[in-house]
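Input for the complex:
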Amino acid sequence: MNREEVLERLQPVFRDVFDDDSITVSAETTSADIDDWDSLEHINLVNAVEQEFGMKFDMGQILTMKNVGEMADIILSRI
Amino acid sequence: MRELEYPFDSNNILKRAKRIKRELLSDGSVRLKKKIAVLGGSTTHDIIRAMELFLLDAGIEPEFYESEYAQYWQDAMFPGEELSGFTPDIVLVCTSVRNIKTWPEIGDGAERVAQIEEEEFSRYTQMWEKLSSDYHCPIIQNNFEDPSWRLMGNRDGWDSHGRVRFVRRLNERFASYAEAHETFYICDLAYIAGAYGLDRWHDPLYWYMYKYAMGMDAIPYYAWNAAAIIRSLFGKNKKALVLDLDNTLWGGVVGDDGVENLEIGEETAIGEAYSEFQEYLKAQKDIGVLLTVDSKNDEENALAGLSHPDGKLKPDDFVCIRANWEPKSLNAKDIAHSLNILEDALVFVDDNPAEREIIRQQLPGTAVPELPKEPEKYLRILDRSAFFEVTNLTEDDRGRTQMMKANVDREALKSTFADYDEYLRSLEMTAVIHAFDPLHFARISQLTNKSNQFNLTTKRFTQDEIEALAEDEGYITLCGSLADRFGDNGIVSLAAGRIEGKELHLILWLMSCRVLKRGMEQAMMDTLVMECEKKGITKIYGYYYPTAKNGMVREFYAERGFELTKSEADGSTVWALDLTKGYELQNSIIIIQEN
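Predicted:
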């Protein structure tokens, strides 16, 4: 799987979690781009992403992810 | 909604929570609005999110107050304006083993250990007493799950210095408190975490990162249990099991295989599984659940199967057996009708997916648990689905099957009389009608929450509210019990009205459908009028608020001699009975006994 494919699979997860079918995610997407993406929704989002890819982030990674691109990179390194 | 039925996909529910909520809220159903204060000892955001979905699906639209992180005690003891102005219908104290402040240490003497236990426990009792006196509403308190580590290994469970032992002692004291206090309930975190798997429950990442007392995918399991208690308190429990026979209550098909070849009993593994399932179902009677049969079989074969010497369930355990070749959906409707309960109070249990699908379509309110192929798994599905979560267990619950069977005998007697009044007289009915009394507060509250059809205002009352009404001089309250030659029905009818000068305004009038057309409403009205006359009241106002279920009492006040005074666009009506014009007693059949 490459980065593009990871991003493609992330999009429906974001749409589900934020209940917004207009969301388009790119590597540069950050929490500032999505209205409901606060620290509590982040927990739910991370869990949903973990389920989607069958992997778990560790504590350090959850804290340091800056944008969706970095999230995708971690996923790629873990699957 | 299928997604929210047990067994559910925890992660899917959380991921799609926003969508599911939106879909539920737009399905057009009418829901009971309730306010729930969640006083948490950890981050409760996702707990509330999941609980909201389960409650919406059960016909309750919750509004939540959520305390700031871990402020449960401060909020209870020193509530801010937001909480004190919230007037909750339920308080949920959502604490966990993480909230234990002081633990015994290895060097502590017995006295010190006892002192620590007392301090921990009294921190909770203080809080419960404060909550109870501030809000007069049911309190749900989590007990403690086992800790995530054991200093002494297995010894931790029995040595008084062990944390495991300490937690279990506190849980025992919580349970004793619950036994001694009505309207106080325990959400059994210890069991829920155990059933889920303690190590998965205590996901350390979720505690350190987010201060979640349990791992993310454990949250819906907790929320499900807390919601089950709330559902039960607000009368959303199911009332009857509608059971298939072949391959549901025993292995094999009785009509084809013959009784002697059915798998039930201790001889085979599958037979044992069916035995325990039957034992479980039979015990449901003790908590007031009605058992019925809906089977495609000749009745003779069905009864033969149920009389299997190794079977636990016998024909006598059922209030109603429909074994014929009619569509099962027709039988199920007929069962609801003959028990005078609504279709949404039924749970349909059948191993055949096609039959389940038909019921889902024909009786949309009926619960239809998805049974797995393996019979040994039936029991757990029913058990965890919490259709009959017990919050208050009254005398009435324990005797319900007997009472319903007496109704069947009455029906049989009725058919022998040409004249209905003559039949009623032959029942030799006696009623006791008096003001709400402490002995019956639990049953009275239960009736206000369960009665849907013969209910003029459909106003629900918690036990605390019933107690407050009973003690308020500004109200007249009546509860009536009815007995006859077949048995005692217990409390079956309630009325309550607010006194305003020389007027009485009826805020509550209901009757259990168990005693329809027996003249009990006439007897209640007579007693109410007598009570009014004693208090110098000259006019009684009755109110009818239509719901999807109470059409049968639309003309109730007209039948009691009231005059229509107001009619609203939504179908609500107001009625008045002028006592100055004289009142003629309506009941001549039931003998009224002094309390």
